[in-house]
Amino acid sequence: MDVAIAGAGMFGLATALTFAENGAHVVLFDRWGVANARATSNDHTRVWRTAYGPKRLYSRWARESLEVWKRWEAECGEQLFQQTGVLWLEGDDPEFASATRAALDALGIPYESLAAGRAASRFPQFSGIEDRRALWEPLAGVLFARRACLAIARLFERRGGKIETAGVASFSGRRMILEDGRDISADKYVFACGPWLRDIFPSLLGGRIRVTRQEVFYFEPPAPDNFGPGEFPVWLEEGRRAGKEFSYYGMPTLDGRVKLASDERGPEFDPTSGDRTTSPESLAQARDFLTRRLPALAPQRLIDSRVCQYEQTIDSHLIVDRHPDWENVWIAGGGSGHGFKLAPAVANALLREETPDEVRLKR
Ligand SMILES: Cc1cc2nc3c(=O)[nH]c(=O)nc-3n(C[C@H](O)[C@H](O)[C@H](O)COP(=O)(O)OP(=O)(O)OC[C@H]3O[C@@H](n4cnc5c(N)ncnc54)[C@H](O)[C@@H]3O)c2cc1C
Predict the structure, then answer these.
(1) Residue 318 CA: which ligand 1 atom is closest?
(2) How far apart are CA 107 and CA 56, in angstroms?
(3) What is the pLDDT of residue 94?
(4) Which strands form 244-250's sheet, in the order they lie side by side?
(5) pLDDT tens digit string along 110-144?
(6) How confident is the model at residue 363, as a pLDDT?
(7) d(CA 59, CA 13)
(8) Between 241 and 214, whose confidence is greater?
(9) Which of 11, 40, 179, 190 to mutate to test the pocket of ligand 1 (most atoms within 8 A of CB)?
(10) Bridge partners, residue 142, by sequence
(11) Cα(40) to centroid of ligand 1, in Å?
(12) 309 within ligand 1 shell (Cβ under 6 A)
């Protein structure tokens, strides 16, 4: 075996496929299998965007990743990406928008700065944004996350890769020890266990990754539906109301549902045994937000919901680095609520054994 990978979320899957495309013999182990109910990557959709303020690495990685996503989409014959445009309603912090503009200018990524009033007239579904400036990313959109997990797994198997439903218990010296007692020997090991990474390397990652409870709601579109892609974008808004900060984002109607979620970090969550029932309080807050901002959605029926987890690092940077004790052991994780889109670039970095400063394990 050339490469053994623990974790078949999108980081592990993209890494497995990328190494297999480059001729490696790869085996991918996942405790509960591809697209399992607990995996962070296993939701309906994830946003693809390049606006990252001053964190230019991710604007670059997002662009690099989209090229790969489109190639994989063509190879698997299923739609993985939907271009919708992304609308950022600018908040009180002008720094983020100006740093984003500078980064996108430097990288030649198209965007439009919308003066106050422009977003409101372009997207009349919003209420109360007449005085808001906005940043419009026309090429941005949505990745169909669960569908992509299953499709990438199939592409990987078509390349001769092997996926086993088996948990990795630990890494000791030169071997990966599985929960069923087997030990696995490979030239290179990649640990991509998302929020479970800290269980495998508790002393290294216990203090670096915090796992938070995040709730996602899907509403039935109104009739007639003027929330479809083309009429309505992916959008993000951060702000302050009644002395409290809020941060919501949402999507157009995709597969018959309109998504809304809060990006605020929730309480600590156990990704194995935590209760995944959404709370009536969060739903009430979401409806309250919709009443103010997207009133046509506020009374709509809730048709799906999900409790997921952010594997939040201290500084929201990903972790893509060698284990400090072993040359041939790599860690890929710390998605911090924005990692999915970047998985192909993470995989390329692992292939090239590159660790940009931002994603190094902070010592
Ligand atoms: C609500 C929410 C919204 C998000 N929105 C976005 C977005 O819009 N755009 C974006 O780019 N990103 C977004 N993200 C972040 C993104 O989903 C994650 O960064 C990404 O999916 C992480 O993938 P991963 O492979 O690191 O982890 P995971 O998908 O969690 O995969 C880890 C895998 O490891 C397996 N595993 C665990 N323990 C073991 C073990 N001991 N042995 C073997 N296998 C094991 C698990 O079964 C799991 O399949 C969001 C996340 C959440 C929760």
Answers:
(1) 19
(2) 9
(3) 79
(4) 112-114, 134-137, 86-89, 234-241, 244-250, 258-262, 209-219, 302-313
(5) 999 999 999 999 999 999 999 999 999 999 999 99
(6) 64
(7) 22
(8) 214
(9) 40
(10) 47, 82
(11) 3
(12) yes
Give the SS3 label for residue 208.
Answer: coil
Instruction: Write out the two tokens for 168.
Output: 């990795």
pLDDT per position as a tens digit, 17-33: 999 999 999 999 999 99
Ligand 1 contact via 66 beta carbon (within 6 Å): no
Q: In whole angstroms, what is the distance from residue 237 CA to residue 89 CA?
A: 5
Query: pTM for the whole thing?
Result: 0.98
How close is the Cα of 9 to the center of ligand 1, in Å?
Answer: 5
User: Ligand 1, closest atom to CA 332?
Assistant: 26
Question: Which residue ranges make up each domain of the chain?
Answer: 1-79+142-207+314-363
* Cβ neighbours for 76, distance < 8 A, ≥ 6 positions apart: 151, 152, 154, 155
Helix and strand totals (H; E) in the chain: 9, 20
* 105 sits in which H/E element: helix 94-107
Mean pLDDT to the nearest integer, 136-160: 98
Tell me if 11 CB under 6 Å of ligand 1: yes
User: How far does residue 339's CA lie from ligand 1's centre (Å)?
Assistant: 8
What whole-number distance in Å separates Cα of residue 289 and Cα of residue 88? 16
Q: Domain 1-79+142-207+314-363 adopts which CATH fold?
A: FAD/NAD(P)-binding domain (3.50.50)
* Nearest CA residue ID for atom 4, ligand 1: 337
Number of other CB atoms surrounding residue 3 within 10 Å: 24
Rounded mean pLDDT of 277-281? 98
Asked if pLDDT for residue 4 goes beyond 70, the answer is: yes
